[in-house]
Amino acid sequence: MAFHKVDYTKENGLPVVLTTVDKLVQWGRSNSLWAMSYGLACCAMEMMAAGGGRFDFDRFGTIFRASPKHSEVMIIAGTLTKKHAEFTRRLYDAMPEPKWVISMGSCANTGGMFNTYATVQGVDRVIPVDIYLPGCAPRPETLQYALMILQKKIRKETPRRKQKVKRVV
Amino acid sequence: MRRDRFKKDTTAKNYYEDRFYVAPQSPKFDVLGSKFEDDLKALDGLVLNSYVEFDQMVVFVDKNDNLKALEKLKEFGYEILSELSGVDFIHQRGGIEVFYQLLSIKHKRRARVKCFVKNGEFLQSATSLYKSANWAERELYDMMGVWIENHPNLKRILMPDDWYGHPLLKSYPLHGDEAAKWYEVDKIFGREYRDIVGEENRDSAFIDSKDTFNFSRIYHETEYGGVEPSEAYLQEYQEKGGVPFIKHATRDKFKILKKRR
């Protein structure tokens, strides 16, 4: 189509979008959140379902990765034991900045019903958490919604090289 | 007015009775005359006590004879050691009763060998006879604190290597001891961070409605450090004005499907 024949008044205005670099970067970041597949217990089944065809995380640009070095979101799906806490922290430290954490389900949030000697009473004792997702176990759409809220949160952040300290631990 | 129908019962009943339900003892039969007679004869001279319970033979042996007894039963046809664990009798008898649950596919029978290990005593490993004893004995050591002699790799299996105490002992607190309370903090951040991270909240009924970080009210969700809004609001996926290149999504335009497609 010739240039002069396009009626810009009908096609949503000029083919130009004005934005800031900050917004562009954060928009890009929020739509390509690669999540670390970190299933620990029953919540992992719901997480897998969210990755599967019916709920389809791929359309959010969220792809599960098996390596912390490729990931920017850690979805802690399940009960974290004290034996495992050290490795969780190590994997979190291996993830490149900026990074975010979704704590999925009651066990990850507060230890859940496992008020026992071997369970960490909330993963926020070990790593900083951005989104707490309630439920036991949460449905896949709840996880999807948590991810959408996280995207919104990321869009609001400023894309500095160094992220603000979320919590002094 | 409330009916006092229990009053009569309590006065008629004996005041001093067991506070908890005590399960009746299961019936036990003599081994002699049962189908396990040959099994018992194979163990000649080692048995301290024996009976048949729930169609299984139970034999008590001395803890130094556990290998001999297992070897003889294995020769007789009990090829599989399906389970090995212990029962805490430290308060009553000063030790742990270890049991070996055996299965014979050849004879289609099950038998149990029991021995009593006192505190501070060693138990001979059965790994030379049964491969499955390897992990089971590690678990026995890890959870009950029974020391096993001649085990190829006696180290903790479920708990971390530096864990203090043996959690399946009846004297071990359910929520863990002082060391368990700080385990992950000490391990990851160091002892000096105890004050910053804080103690575990073990009270499941504890609710502080002013603490919006650990307890947020529904429709009043806030970010960490934020002030809880006084009026209820719905979390929207998109910020006001929408997101570039993405279709503007609002709650009133959601479509709810009547049935699955």
UniProtKB/TrEMBL annotation, chain A:
Pfam family, any one: Oxidored_q6
EC class: translocase
GO cellular component terms listed in the entry, alphabetical order: plasma membrane; respiratory chain complex I
Major location (coarse): membrane
Membrane topology: Peripheral membrane protein
Keywords, in A-Z order: 4Fe-4S, Cell inner membrane, Cell membrane, Iron, Iron-sulfur, Membrane, Metal-binding, NAD, Oxidoreductase, Quinone, Translocase, Transport, Ubiquinone
Cofactor descriptive note: Binds 1 [4Fe-4S] cluster.
Keyword Cell inner membrane: yes
Subunit structure: NDH-1 is composed of 14 different subunits. Subunits NuoB, C, D, E, F, and G constitute the peripheral sector of the complex.
Function summary: NDH-1 shuttles electrons from NADH, via FMN and iron-sulfur (Fe-S) centers, to quinones in the respiratory chain. The immediate electron acceptor for the enzyme in this species is believed to be ubiquinone. Couples the redox reaction to proton translocation (for every two electrons transferred, four hydrogen ions are translocated across the cytoplasmic membrane), and thus conserves the redox energy in a proton gradient.
Protein name from the UniProt record: NADH-quinone oxidoreductase subunit B
Native source species: Campylobacter geochelonis
Automatic annotation (TrEMBL), chain B:
E.C. no: 7.1.1.-
Domain NADH:ubiquinone oxidoreductase 30kDa subunit, chain residue ranges per copy: 61-177
Pfam families: Complex1_30kDa
Keywords of the record: NAD, Oxidoreductase, Quinone, Translocase, Transport
InterPro entries the UniProt entry points to: NADH_DH_suC, NADH_quin_OxRdtase_su_C/D-like, NADH_UbQ_OxRdtase_30kDa_su, NADH_UbQ_OxRdtase_CS
Ranges annotated as spanning the membrane: none
Molecular function terms, GO-annotated: NADH dehydrogenase (ubiquinone) activity; oxidoreductase activity, acting on NAD(P)H; quinone binding
Catalytic function, reaction form: a quinone + NADH + 5 H(+)(in) = a quinol + NAD(+) + 4 H(+)(out)
Function statement: NDH-1 shuttles electrons from NADH, via FMN and iron-sulfur (Fe-S) centers, to quinones in the respiratory chain.
Similarity-based family: Belongs to the complex I 30 kDa subunit family.
Record-given protein name: NADH-quinone oxidoreductase
Protein's organism: Campylobacter geochelonis
